[in-house]
Amino acid sequence: MRYRTFGRTKWKVSEVGYGMWGMAGWSGSDDEESLKSLQLAVDLGVNFFDTAWAYGDGHSERLLGQILRANPKKTLFAATKVPPKNRKWPTDRGDKLGDVFPPEYIRDYAERSVKNIGRVDLLQFHVWEDAWATDDRWQRAIADLRADGLVRAVGVSINRWEPANAIDTLRTGLIDAVQVIYNIFDQSPEDELFPICRELDIGVIARVPFDEGSLTGTLTKDSKWPRGDYRSMYFGKENLGPTLKRVEALRALVPKGSSLPELALRFILATPDVDVVIPGMRKPAHVRTNVAVSDASPLTRDLIAELRQHRWDRTPAPWSA
């Protein structure tokens, strides 16, 4: 496992981290298997774990808490998120901070997360509007949390396909990290967001490396998910067909002896602006496969250039929340 410096926090984080959304809320998750997968990840050198209170109303956080307690001598980093009070993902233009993240609510959920996990290294806002950048209510709230020792660092999880919707907030100097969708299809963070993060030394977490599963290469036109599973909405008729065509076009670029998901992760890790990528991993086999990517040789410049041609610029839609 290779490690990278996580922005100005100076934490040494595993470049392959652990995304825990699928452990509470997606079909097929099993606590016993999840805990085995988490422990295997720790054993293989993963030290950055990303969860959220919204992942099963604290269930995913409590699983992480079990792993932290089981590994007291390991340096592990716990990142979680405050859910929007109005339970809207993503925000709408014009949403008011007081309806989404009032100060007392921010503290309440920070305390809940600390109780579930045992500690919070990075507390993130689970949605964001850059119009709130200069609102001193959230600024005072996080200053108090830091002063009281409840959190070590603060971040923003940026809405899907809106990587510029936090730039003014980053310029306040109060944000230590951003979490953004970045993968072979979704390359737009390179335009404005990554340069600002370089300038201000802000940590970058790349989420959704497999485009909710399409870049694993396992989806077909007949793929179905139970009602309530997020993928059943994301891969509806408006998105599944066009996505499958783009995935098929990528298959010819997979190097011999490799796989499409490995290629997807190696593309992300080829970008020095990314400090950690957080694939979802619910089974030990997923952990072994994804962690091994950190030890793979870099992609060639020619292959990276070819992959850049598969950029897909999209705008938010009701099914992409």
Brief descriptors of the model:
12 helices, globular, 8-stranded parallel beta sheet, alpha/beta, two-stranded antiparallel ribbon, TIM Barrel, 321 residues
How would you characterize this protein structure?
The chain is built from 12 helices and 10 strands. It is of the alpha/beta class. The strands form 2 sheets. It has an 8-stranded parallel sheet with strand order 3-4-5-6-7-8-9-10, with helices on one face. Strands 1-2 form a two-stranded antiparallel ribbon. α6 links the parallel β7 and β8. α1 packs parallel to α11 and α4 packs parallel to α5. The longest helix has 15 residues. The chain is globular. The two termini are 33 Å apart. The mean pLDDT is 95.
Strand content: 5-15%
CATH class: Alpha Beta
CATH-defined architecture: Alpha-Beta Barrel
* CA gyration radius, whole angstroms: 19 Å
Spell out the CATH superfamily.
Answer: NADP-dependent oxidoreductase domain
Number of helices: 12
Write the layout of secondary structure elements.
Blueprint: E1 3-6, E2 11-14, E3 18-19, H1 31-43, E4 48-50, H2 59-70, E5 77-82, H3 97-100, H4 103-117, E6 120-125, H5 136-147, E7 151-157, H6 167-170, E8 177-181, H7 193-200, E9 203-207, H8 230-234, H9 240-250, H10 260-269, E10 276-277, H11 284-292, H12 301-308
Parallel strand pairs: 3-4, 4-5, 5-6, 6-7, 7-8, 8-9, 9-10
Antiparallel strand pairs: 1-2
Short structural summary:
The chain is of the alpha/beta class and 321 residues long. It is built from twelve helices and ten strands.
